[in-house]
Amino acid sequence: MRAGRRLSGRADQKLRRIQAVTDAALSSLELDDLLGQLLERTRDLLSADTAAIMLVDPNGEELVATAASGLEEEVRQGLRIPIGQGFTGRVAAQAIPVILDRVGPDTVASPIVIDKRLSSMIGVPMLASGKVIGVLHVGSIAERRFSDDDLELLQLVADRASLATQARLSQLDRAATLALQRSLLPARPPVIAGLDVAARYLPGAQVGVGGDWYDLFQLPSGYLGLVIGDVAGNGLRAAVVMGRIRSALRAYALESDDPADVLTRLDRKIQLFEPQAMATAIYAVLHPDRAALTVSIAGHLPPVLIDADGNGRLLEARTDLPLGAYHNAARRSSTVELNSHAGLLMYTDGLVERRDRLLTEGIDLLLAEITTDPAEQLCARVTTALLRDQAASDDVAILAVRRTGG
Amino acid sequence: MDLSVSTERLGDVARIFVTGDVDMSSGRQLACEIDNAIGGSPTTTVVDLTGAGFLDSSGIAVLINGRRQAEEAGIGFRVVGASGIVLQVLTMTGVWELLSGESGQ
């Protein structure tokens, strides 16, 4: 027999309790199963009649019954308790353990607990990064005093449950963000007979989306709508606003074939419903015979007109105020003729703007890259030439369209 | 170049001197300065861009919002001193007329 102290009965029991809760086998379970297991073991270890977990709702104002053993009715009914109210509400509000010796309508807010005729309860806060994310509570029908060891065990269980819950919430958050991002990305331009179309979208922010966009759509009237735009700001926030503006522009484009009219309505909508937003944009329509283009420019850099020989020059048209800048801003449309094999290249300022040089210098570099190449190759040339030495910090969007003759 | 802004009140006119780059990261600083200047209820607020070396779309947004804010407060608003890169950006995006009060480009 080895010399040395044997564990006292109490410490031994304590160790076994802790092992039951920290058992590695729990790690392989899905969140719901994990919480269920933890609660069952907790009830068992404490010889309690009920064990339950309530989690803080995303709005941060209520606790929602999420898992329970012996108190399943709370979960079934989707019980909600405002933080601050009743027993669990108090635990959550004050972020401290609470022991309740007298359970009644004046001390607890859950009618199910009252129904169960619990006489003693103990609740501990579930914390993650210092914030309360839920409450774990245990109840006994027979009157009893909960010990410090009981409290310690409960806190251990609560910590375990918090970790698992946080991990799951992060996962859901990421999935939701990804889904939103994907919905905001510009679609591949459609294939249009008689036109060669290509585009580029290079968001500057790490989040993978930004406020720049392009759009191209065939209208029932026979006109073809072409859009390039740039919402001020960056990242997800700008992208979300962009999504709404992109959608509204399409709606107004269905109502009118006059670009100035479309942008005027869009401007009004933005001023009313997105008071802090500002955006630059070009809306152009290719006429049904494809021989002319009508364009309206809202604070955006002028597009490049490409002739049949592959020479590029800036389209001359008045530049009106950006969208969202000023109420009742005047807008005008200009029309240019397009010969066969003519083209248009629209872009956002991220392509040509640099801290240390004039905008016109960047634009000259762009014009120098214009050729008779098909749209796809043209986009590649332009992107390579202008972004070669620069990691894009600003978003870049490009839309190139050429008539393929006929 | 980092942005630095300062305001001088001369009689009824609040003049904001801008030095450096106005962009996404520094735009808020200028917005606050304009906000404070307008809050002091001058007759006119002038934004002097003589020392500004760069201005992008976020800078334009700040200036336009400033103009709108001033108008709502019944105060005059004018941008002056723009040159080089900054002037070109303001003219090519069609906002110079509105901000400077000058007609024609």
Can you walk me through this structure?
The complex is a heterodimer of chains A (406) and B (105). The radius of gyration of chain A is 32 Å and the shape is elongated. The mean pLDDT of chain A is 90. Chain A is built from ten helices and 17 strands. Chain A has 406 residues and is of the alpha+beta class. In chain A, helix 1 runs parallel beside helix 6, helix 2 (31-46) packs antiparallel against helix 6 (148-184) and helix 7 (235-255) packs across helix 8. Chain B is globular and about 30 Å long. The mean pLDDT of chain B is 93. Chain B is α/β, with parallel strands linked by helices and 105 residues long. Chain B is 41% helix and 32% strand. In chain B, helix 1 (27-39) packs parallel to helix 2 (57-72). Chain B has a four-stranded mixed sheet with strand order 1-2-3-4, with helices on both faces. The chains are: A alpha+beta (406), B alpha/beta (105). The A-B interface holds A 230, 232-234, 276, 278, 280, 297-302, 318-322, 325-326, 349, 353, 355, 357-360, 394 and B 21, 24, 53-54, 56-58, 60-61, 64-65, 67-68, 84-85, 88-89, 92-95, 98.
Main sheet strand line-up of chain A: 3-2-1-6-5-4
Q: What is the helical fraction of chain A, as a range of percent? A: 25-40%
The chain pair forming the largest interface, with residue counts per chain, is: A-B, 28 and 22 residues
Would you identify the regions of chain A where 5 or more consecutive residues have pLDDT less than 50? none
Determine the N-to-C terminus distance of chain B: 28 Å
- Gyration radius of chain A (Cα, Å) is 32 Å
Report the sheet with the most strands of chain A, covering strand number, pairing sense and barrel closure. Answer: 6 strands, antiparallel
Number of helices of chain B: 4
Q: Oligomerization state of this entry?
A: heterodimer
Main sheet attributes: strand count, strand direction, barrel closure of chain B: 4 strands, mixed
Global mean pLDDT of chain A? 90
Class inferred from helices and paired strands of chain A: alpha+beta
Low-pLDDT sequence parts of chain B: none
- Helical fraction of chain B: 40-55%
Question: What percent of residues of chain A are in strands?
Answer: 25-35%
**Which strand-content bin applies to the residues of chain B?**
25-35%
By DSSP, the count of extended strands of chain B is: 4
**How do the strands line up in the largest sheet of chain B?**
1-2-3-4
Global outline of chain A: elongated
Supply the number of helical segments of chain A: 10
Shape of chain B: globular
